[in-house]
Design brief:
Number of strands: 12
Structural class: mainly beta
Number of domains: 1
Shape: elongated
Largest sheet: 8 strands, antiparallel, barrel
Distance between the termini: 32 Å
Length: 196
C-alpha cells in the first residue's frame, strides 16, 4: 500500500503547468483475425478487418507520464472460406473499453511528441441471435502527436490488441470462443487532439 501512496503523491505533486487533459475522437482500421481451429471442409474462418471508431481521454500528471481511458467500436463480419465459396456467417459488433499508462518523449514545449503506451481492458463481442460475450484484453503500442497549436493537435498511433479467449481446450466452440487462446488483431488510427 505504501508504494502506491508514494506514486500517487509524486504524480500529484507535478508542476501545475505540466498537468493537462486531452480528448481525442478516434478513427482507425483494425486488421482481420484468423480463427486457427476450423471444421473439416472449411479452409478459413476470419473475423474480418474494418473501420474502428471511438474516443479516448487522457490526463497527464507530468510532461511525460499520463493515464488514458479508451472506448472503441467496430462493426465487422465473421466470414468462412470453403471449396465452394466465401459466405459471411454473421455480422458482429466488437467494443473495447480499456485504460493505458502513457509515456511521452521530449520536452513539453515541443510540437512533435512520440509516445508509447500499454494497458488492459475488456472486449465485448455481440451479434444478432447470438449470446454476447466479454473477454479480457490488453494492448501495447506507440505513436506520435503533433501540436501546431498549444491546445490543438493531431495523433497517429498503432497498437497490438489481443483478446484473451482462453477457449483452446473446449470441445464445443461457441460463436465467440473460437476454440483458441488468443484473438490477435492490430489497429492503426488517429484523431484530432484537444488539450485543456
Amino acid at each position: 500500500m505504501r508504494p502506491l501512496m508514494t506514486i500517487v503523491l509524486l504524480l500529484g505533486s507535478a508542476p501545475a503547468l505540466a498537468q493537462s487533459w486531452e480528448l481525442t475522437p478516434l478513427v482507425g482500421y483494425t486488421s482481420a483475425a484468423p480463427i486457427t481451429r476450423t471444421a473439416d471442409g472449411v479452409e478459413d474462418i476470419t473475423l474480418d478487418r474494418g473501420v474502428t471508431v471511438g474516443v479516448q481521454t487522457a490526463y497527464f500528471f507530468s510532461p511525460h507520464i499520463g493515464l488514458e481511458a479508451q472506448w472503441t467500436h467496430q462493426t465487422t463480419k465473421l466470414s468462412m472460406t470453403t471449396a465452394t465459396g466465401s459466405p459471411d456467417l454473421f455480422t458482429t459488433w466488437t467494443e473495447e473499453v480499456g485504460g493505458n499508462l502513457v509515456y511521452q518523449f521530449g520536452a513539453a514545449a515541443r510540437p512533435l511528441r512520440p509516445f508509447v503506451f500499454g494497458g488492459v481492458g475488456i472486449t465485448s463481442f455481440s451479434a444478432p441471435d447470438v449470446a454476447a460475450q466479454t473477454k479480457f484484453s490488453w494492448t501495447v503500442g506507440a505513436g506520435v502527436k503533433w501540436f501546431p497549436e498549444p491546445v490543438l493537435g493531431v495523433e497517429v498511433r498503432g497498437r497490438y490488441k489481443p483478446t484473451e479467449l482462453q477457449d483452446s481446450s473446449s470441445t464445443f466452440c461457441n460463436p465467440f470462443g473460437f476454440c483458441q487462446s488468443t484473438l490477435n488483431r492490430f489497429e492503426l488510427g488517429g484523431g484530432v487532439v484537444v488539450r485543456f
